[in-house]
Amino acid sequence: MLKISGLIIVSVIAILVVAHIVFRPPSLEGRSVTQAVKASPETMLGRIALEPAALDKGDSGVLPLLDGPDAFAARVAVIRAAEVALDVQYYIWQRDATGLMLMDELRMAAERGVRIRLLLDDNGISGLDDDLAALDALPNVEVRLFNPFILRSFKPLGFTFDFVRLNRRMHNKSLTADGAVSILGGRNIGDIYFGFGPGLQFIDSDVMVVGRAAADIGLDFDRYWQSRSAHPIDRIVKTQGLLDVLMSDARQAGQSAEGQAYIERLRSSNIVTRIEAGQLAFEWTKVTLVSDDPAKGMGEARIRDMLFPQLMALTAAPSHSVDVVSAYFVPGRLFSERIERLAEQGVRVRILTNSQAATDVFVVHSAYVKYRPDLLRSGVELYELKPAFSIRDEPETQGFARTSRASLHSKTLAIDGKRIFIGSFNFDKRSLLLNTEMGVLIESPDMASALAAAFSSSFPFVSYTPRLNDTDKLIWDEAAANGTNIHHELEPGTSLGSRLLLWFLGLLPIEWLL
């Protein structure tokens, strides 16, 4: 029996070793080399970015995009306004209504002569191989896949023999047009991010930037485009899709009942006409791009070249407040000790994350709950988003008021009501150690104080607030619509089964993967 077991183990190992050798990524030799374009006053977007009067006020212009439909409309408008080049980088691109419509916008841009570089993480493009291959075949388009799966039919099988590489993903999200305007933040491409249709919607944050910040994002895109993890799709995907299928499916998505309702809703947003007229009200200020070295995708980045150490250095020594919004919050020992120490020193630390009932990644919540008691003991204020709520439609609650079934997806950090970080970085181990991330730190008292105001005015009504009672037992407070306060002794919106599952997942040694 032992001999048979040993033989089986040796055989499995041999198969995995052979698979690792056979199914390795193709050579990058001969891959084209291109660079980001510089903003030019000869383009409409370039004129916005290079406006001399605006540049006297700061090196970059910023405009927050909190509402899902506005964020979608802004992307459409920027793509349509592009005259020279589009650099597009995303972790997830779904083949649904908004995903198809945006991909078709890229097709139309390419056909009018705009150069398009599309870099997608290969873990988040299910069902898109044919569409991307068809798009890549256009003269002005090149598509690359980050850390691609060589097995296309059943991607998860690739983890069995190439786990170390495939476990590292590109979580960045940005769209840059003509080297002048960029949109970045927490949103991927898909209906759930843009408020399309009924059902669950993600609450998220993006920002449009122009000027120096957009130029920096273009240069950062070049680093990823030329990295060892970025493979031309025609060396990975051997099928040849049909543009007619993409065009037809995109048209049907827009003509469906839900599509028509969504397009009508977009008409109430004036962001498209303002972009076309060059009349956006940017706040001009200092903006700093922070981004992981793309070598992190191969496990080769130095610590000092990663986003988190850069961000911590830029936000060191807050004097009175730290406000964090993070969909997935697994701070790890060092970061949790840092914010606990700040709270004990009198800095007000407030954190909004998903409740167990609202989270879309249950296993991450099992890691978060381990840190919750010590955070509360130190004086950190925690807010856990409810899965359903109804509040007034006010500016500081934008993105919260228009959905009744929600999950948090935003990633923001505000320091002292003066500076705010918006990006793709979740405050968890995966963002810290495994995935590549990006974001911008903005010197904006208006934006930072708006987040602080939301913590005071609206977050208490859309969240459960956990606290420790006099006997050090965890309870949750809930502000009811009638003004009363409800106390929950068990995590709200959960069942015995879900709590047992959470406890079991918390026993597993997998926090480093989360």
TrEMBL record:
Subcellular location: Secreted
Chief place of localization: secreted
Family annotation (InterPro entries): PLD-like_dom, PLipase_D/transphosphatidylase
One Pfam family of this chain: PLDc_2
Molecular function per GO: phosphatidyltransferase activity
Keywords linked to the UniProt accession: Secreted
Record-annotated PLD phosphodiesterase domain positions: 166-193, 404-431
PROSITE patterns: PLD (PS50035)
Coiled-coil residues: none
GO biological process: cardiolipin biosynthetic process
UniProt cross-references to SMART domains, sorted A to Z: PLDc
Function: Could be a virulence factor.
Entry-linked PANTHER family: CARDIOLIPIN SYNTHASE, CARDIOLIPIN SYNTHASE C
Protein name: Phospholipase D
Lineage: Bacteria, Pseudomonadati, Pseudomonadota, Alphaproteobacteria, Hyphomicrobiales
